[in-house]
């Protein structure tokens, strides 16, 4: 079976003697049904000719960032959008450094900055160059950015050394490409996640908020990124580090969160509201600190906008998933919310139970949709996030939704 049918692979070739293997790699990728376009750096053309790659890929080969011959001079954006994966094989030490530094002075490095597709590098270099502290530091940084590594392998090298730094063989590279696509079940989808609490100011020093740590939403964002999605994370104030490769929008209040969500929702395929949005805010915001007096103080509260319900009520809503945190009647209340807010799905969890839910590493979920449901037993939030996304995508596809990028509706 052709496992890469209709997958768009943008192959970057950089300056390494191993570039001769790239021709065989293109042939094998195409045998598996992939469409392959090639970008070569100037150094790569010293090792293998663009004409060879053009003949084998059946496509023009790109070598220039600024090419007066092309119509739009926007090649880098078009190629970046076209790709389901950017695979750089062989990736030289110099190119890894360039990528780690965020440079954009040639076509390949510019495409890497401009793409949403997963980027994979297959390094090839002398073993001492691979072990050099600068190279290792660059690789660590690239991993933090969410860039994947295929190899390098250990063995005899063109320079006569024996050690780590060999490019993987083309068949091994193809196996690894297939593995990435198998786990990339959200490739082509734009997932928007809300996370954390919101804060509703009373005066310049006081606010109303809740115990949400943001961990569930951040875990969902990370899992969605790992599954290949383009992810936007709109987060209230939390003490968590940003998620690599995920666009983070930090907000403060429920109103800020609503604005941030609504300005982005048109291109979203799956909306997951994991934030613990404050349901009420003070009706009056004091511009100065309120002094204490002997008498009691009463604050009048008004409702905040319901972000989830607002999204679900759009004329063309994305696949919409809410959360319900309850201390009693979990399933009953969750089903009520599913129906009242017109959601596709709701993930319900107990709160007030030691060790799970708010401000905890673990959780247990009851995931409900109109015709059914499933129980996800207590597990780390990171693990649950992956399970939840798999259920979401099953329901999404059963309901006949198509991701924006695939349906071309924007
Ligand atoms: N939500 C939201 N905007 C709000 C309030 C909640 O988007 N202003 C979302 C949450 O992110 C979550 C779900 O709605 O996905 C929670 O539903 P909600 O009815 O607000 O639950 P509770 O706050 O627990 O409300 P109730 O007191 O009715 O149980």
Straight-line distance between termini: 32 Å
The CATH homologous superfamily of the largest domain is called: CoaB-like
Query: Can you give the helix content as a percent range?
Result: 25-40%
Mean pLDDT: 91
Measured by DSSP, the beta-strand proportion falls in: 15-25%
Query: Biggest sheet, in brief?
Result: 8 strands, mixed
Spatial order of the strands forming the largest sheet: 13-12-9-14-17-18-19-20
**What is the helix tally?**
14
Q: Ranges with pLDDT <50 over ≥5 residues? A: 405-410
Shape: elongated
Ligand catalogue: cytidine-5'-triphosphate
Would you tell me which CATH topology of the largest domain applies?
Rossmann fold
- As for the number of domains, it is 2
CATH level 1 class label of the largest domain: Alpha Beta
What's the gyration radius in Å?
Answer: 25 Å
Protein traits:
2 domains; eight-stranded mixed sheet; Rossmann fold; 25% strand; six-stranded parallel sheet; elongated; 33% helix; binds cytidine-5'-triphosphate
What does this structure look like?
α3 packs across α5 and α9 crosses α13. The chain has 2 domains: 8-181, Flavin prenyltransferase-like (Rossmann fold); 190-407, Rossmann fold, CATH 3.40.50.10300. It is 33% helix and 25% strand. Mean pLDDT is 91; it is low at 405-410. The chain is built from 14 helices and 20 strands. β7 (153-156) and β8 (162-166) form a beta hairpin. It is an alpha/beta fold and 410 residues long. It is elongated, with a radius of gyration of 25 Å. An 8-stranded mixed beta sheet has the order 13-12-9-14-17-18-19-20, sandwiched between helices. Residues 194, 254, 273, 275, 277, 279, 304-308, 322-325, 337 line the site of cytidine-5'-triphosphate.
